[in-house]
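Listing S7. Sequence submitted for prediction.
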Amino acid sequence: MLRSAILGAAFLGLAAPAFASSFTFETAKPVDEARFAVIGTVWTCEDTVCKGDMDRKKVTLRDCKKLAKKAGEITSFKNDKDELSAEEIEACKASARD
């Protein structure tokens, strides 16, 4: 009986879905598309603010650059625990011009 309970608990631990974090980015100009997919995430935009859920904890410059190629110049990129620095945002802005 104890063995079954342990195996059941282990299975539930492995089968539990990953928890996604909510990410937000803002653009210099309104985004053309209200919804689009980049980085395996569907982003929903209203005017210059876009939101999406990603299975990661940190905000990265690499992701910002991918978003900038689709959405245009990004002025901020963050989640509830992390945010790109001013220097990283400048590097991200440069990728929107490429």
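Caption to Listing S7: primary sequence and predicted structure tokens for the chain studied. Strands lie at 21-27, 35-38, 41-46, 49-54, 74-79. The CA atoms of residues 35 and 44 lie 5 Å apart.
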